[in-house]
């Protein structure tokens, strides 16, 4: 793309080429259950406009983000674009209707209904990448995979991904796909950053062995790796610290957390790492956030890093990690 500041990678074995910075849309929509500071439709459209101007072609949303409002905002924006130039990902699992007991999970009934609703909100005929949002203990994985395979055969979905699983769960999915001759899982979306490295225990190995693309979410650990936090901060009363740690490793606790745990991060491990990143950033003329994102982009099987932003300046800074420079092996 002429004038692009973006790097591009293949998305696993899909044949798709995606910008290595993916714009996450959790911050789109002002539903009462959304997070403070979220963007309205006008501001979200301006964010996506700038993302596209800088070469971005990969958008990530979910049906549950602001109860469908995020998908709706992406959908109205797509109406003004050449749809074929963009790779749009969304997810299914979480309960959309609190009054419907079957409006949740990865069973055939909910997936078939969920995909139709997502297509309507996105105002598109197909979804490029359809994720299972989390693991479903209530539904046999065979049923879920057959349903997703049917959606690909019907042309409603192009590719399948999974998110928020353990190593054994991902390997089980892969083996069932092979055994049953179904559509391959092309990518995994999982929390991964310099502060959340449990993913390296097994999941990265599965991805490397099976040719699955890896897409980290919360790459700046809820802002902790943004560079705005310093060793001498006043503590949890400091407004800059008010959202540290919002992105918990466990989905069930992430839902319940209303107050982050400052004490968990306020230690020498945190400050030594951030100060080292700041030194490395100065060596390259880059910010701490760009160092955090660049480190992820240089990890095995990472095709793209999913960022979130509420300001265009944040978006532009993050995209500065995409291409044109690398951390040395020693720095990594």
Automatic annotation (TrEMBL):
GO cellular component: a single term: cytosol
Region listing for Disordered, in residue ranges: 235-259
Protein species of origin: Lingula anatina (Brachiopod)
Protein name: Uncharacterized protein LOC106160667
Gene Ontology molecular function, alphabetical: oxidoreductase activity
Lineage start: Eukaryota, Metazoa, Spiralia, Lophotrochozoa, Brachiopoda
InterPro entries according to UniProt: AKR, AKR_Detox_Biosynth, NAD(P)_OxRdtase_dom_sf, NADP_OxRdtase_dom
Ranges of residues in domain NADP-dependent oxidoreductase: 20-332
Ranges of compositional bias, category Basic and acidic residues: 249-259
Keywords for the protein's UniProt record, in alphabetical order: Oxidoreductase
Any one Pfam family match given in the protein's UniProt record, by short name: Aldo_ket_red
Highest rank taxon of the organism: Eukaryota
Family designation: Belongs to the aldo/keto reductase family. Aldo/keto reductase 2 subfamily.
């Amino acid at each position: 793309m002429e004038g692009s500041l973006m790097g591009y990678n293949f998305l696993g074995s899909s044949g798709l080429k995606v910008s290595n910075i993916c714009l996450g849309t959790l911050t789109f929509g002002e539903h009462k259950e959304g997070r403070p500071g979220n963007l309205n439709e006008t501001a979200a459209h301006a964010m996506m406009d700038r993302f596209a101007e800088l070469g971005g072609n990969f958008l990530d949303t979910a049906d549950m983000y602001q109860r469908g409002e995020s998908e709706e905002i992406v959908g109205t924006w797509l109406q003004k674009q050449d749809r074929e130039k963009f790779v749009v990902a969304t997810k299914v699992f979480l309960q959309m209707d609190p009054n419907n007991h079957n409006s949740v999970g990865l069973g055939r009934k909910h997936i078939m209904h969920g995909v139709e609703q997502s297509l309507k909100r996105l105002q598109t005929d197909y979804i490029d990448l359809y994720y299972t949002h989390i693991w479903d203990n209530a539904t046999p994985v065979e049923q879920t995979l057959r349903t997703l395979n049917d959606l690909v055969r019907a042309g409603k979905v192009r590719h399948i991904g999974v998110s928020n699983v353990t190593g054994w769960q991902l390997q089980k999915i892969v083996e069932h796909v092979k055994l049953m001759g179904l559509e391959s899982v092309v990518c995994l979306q999982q929390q991964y950053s310099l502060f959340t490295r449990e993913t390296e225990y097994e999941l990265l190995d599965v991805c490397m062995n099976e040719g699955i693309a890896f897409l980290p979410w919360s790459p700046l650990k809820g802002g902790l790796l943004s560079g705005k936090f310093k060793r001498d901060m006043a503590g949890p009363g400091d407004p800059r610290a008010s959202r540290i740690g919002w992105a918990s490793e466990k989905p069930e606790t992430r839902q319940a957390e209303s107050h982050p745990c400052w004490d968990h991060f306020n230690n020498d491990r945190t400050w030594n790492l951030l100060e080292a990143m700041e030194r490395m950033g100065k060596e390259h003329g880059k910010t701490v956030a760009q160092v955090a994102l660049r480190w992820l982009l240089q990890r095995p099987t990472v095709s793209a890093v999913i960022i979130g932003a509420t300001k265009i300046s944040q978006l532009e800074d993050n995209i500065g990690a995409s291409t044109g420079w690398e951390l040395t092996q020693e720095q990594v």
